[in-house]
Amino acid sequence: MATKNIMIVGVGGQGSLLASKLLGRLLVDEGFDVKVSEVHGMSQRGGSVVTYVKFGDKVYSPIIEEGEADFIVSFEKIEAARYIKDLKKGGTIIVNTQQIDPMPVIIGNAEYPANVLDEMKEKGVNVDDIDALALASQAGSAKACNIVLMGRLAKYFDIPREKWETAIEKCVKPAFIEINKKAFELGYNN
Amino acid sequence: MKALMIGNAALARGLYESGCSVISSYPGTPSTEITEEFAKFNDTYCEWAPNEKVAMETAFGASLRGKRSACCMKHVGLNVAADPLFTMSYTGVNAGMVICVADDPGMHSSQNEQDSRHYAIAAKVPMLEPSDSQEALDFAKIAYEISETFDTPVFIKMCTRVAHSQSITETGERVEITKEYVKNPQKYIMAPANAIKRHPFVEERTAKLTEYAETSPLNRIEEGNGENDFGIITSSTSYQYVKEVFGDTVSVLKLGMVNPLPVKMIKDFAEKVGKVYVIEELDPIIETHCKNIGVEVVGKEKFSIMGEFSQKTIAKAFGLADKENVCLDTAVPVRPPMMCSGCPHRGIYYVLAKNKITVLGDIGCYTLGSMPPLNALDMTLCMGASVSGLHGYNKAGGQETENKTVCVIGDSTFMHSGVTGLINIAYNQSNSTVIILDNSITGMTGHQQNPTTGYNIKGDPAGKVNLESLCHSVGINSVRVVDPYNLEECERVVKEELAKNEPSVIISRRPCVLLKYVKPKKPLYINPDKCRGCKRCMKFGCPSISFRDKHAVIDNTLCIGCGVCASLCPFDAFESEGE
User: Fold this and answer.
1) Residues 6+ apart with CB under 8 A from B335
2) How far is B235 from chain A (nearest CA, A)?
């Protein structure tokens, strides 16, 4: 199988680490060669963060470049716009519609561009937008946003739902398994 | 067992399986997880040292006693440890010793992008360079064999992408290695008379290691299918990018040992493939070697000397077409990293910026105080430089600067190399005010314990340096402690200490809000009837506060209820529901 590329983008602290852990676990269990790459350190402090997940028969480069991503999962609206250049032609971007102002907007040096998803759609991008924050709260914790989005991503894969749920069980602490399974289901079905 | 592991965890596993019994390190991105992962093994010793020099000497001591050892650091940490390094090259080792160093091309989390391979060449120490997690594990084992066979410490050089990328890694079992310690002054006492006899040994060793490099499995040729009529010499993560672009269509000489480099192997490869490209991140180390041995190659004229590479960098250099994509016309505002909501550093920076004080800064999360809207910093150089730099600044500036200049340095950085600067301030008496930002942890690298926290790497209670006593005992008479959430107190104490005619230390003490034991309070909210939209709170630069429809609003998913913003509001618009 040719290598498939998934990018997870968002704001430092939003929980992309757990999402990539879940994907890595699932894809290894499915028997793929897998590489997962993220940058630690300074950029995690509320900055724009990106994680690459690649899988296939044999994966070389751990990173995803412009026009290479089959899927982008964005935890925040303008982060989707920031990384859309990396989406492959015909690829799909899943976007949590949450808005988190970056510092230039907070201090009034820039405007938050509210209509980026419309522009993407106008340009023919497959945009799958979802209010993951609301669904996560419905599941029992705003922090489960990441798993709501993984639920949505799962719809695009042939891998059976039970396998995703097994991966959730392996990746989260026992006390949070139920909330996260619920979050996954809400992402999958809404 | 097979598992998905980051390069640093695989390297830690490799050190463990090789029988490494002692690791001493100082944290630094992207090297930190090597030591953190090693600390999870039970039958070994592992510690955070105050700095990299101490760590390397500790590892040396363990090797001398007969146990395999290692020390880990980021590229700039190697500058700090350079002193023992150059002479350890002469003494060699008893049990094997590995130095793990992680470079940061692209400077994701560093102040420069120096290339550690220069140190291997300068100190005449062999260096291995893995290109993924499995190699990181395997190379650790080979490194110890080389160390003991050739009597030398051995470098394993990581880079951000290898250190922090996860790939599938097969683990094995641990071996136990112990060597006897035999007193040997000619080998271990590097006084001139002995050192002069060890230098020829070092040169002979390099010659032998070059021979080893010719046939070692660390360096391998992957023959191409003939589609492309050139060859590529590469190493580390660049190898992965080359394979991503060219697959099997090009012949590749993949170097796993980058010092010393083979001679005959490279010459034979070049003869076979004709045209040779050298693809390496940062400095032209392999390229220069090729040219020195008379092999013509194309290198830095085609591939940048700066930053990280990727498959795109390489495809572009070979004129291959860009991949199709969509770009938006809308400009997206940047999202730089910033201090967290409730970060204790913000309070002290707010006070310093408000009073237009010149601030010499240091290395850590608090470098983010340089960002708008606080713009509080004037200088950041290297670990500890704020304190010694302030001394020099004030010696040069005299009365013109003494009363309006401070330095800021974190607790861990102060232990690393700030205290020596403070000793200089006390000894040579500059009228300097040093602010220690004590957040009770090493923050930026992801919460490592340090000598001031009272806990060791495993989280067990440990010795604890008392900062106040330390400052007093080196000769600072005026040592004050403030709470950075109390802006009024901070402003008063900063003004008082700056006005004094003697060296002084202010300890700004409050734990990092990301520490597990720091329980967040309920988020504040802004009463829109009271908020007049004056934007005074926006000058604080808290990511939880933004401005919508002529009022400030608080993002309750980010706010931790520190309440400092409330003290800035002249209209009492910030309200809280209590604890």
Assistant:
1) A11, A46, A47, A48, A78, A79, A82, A102, A103
2) 13
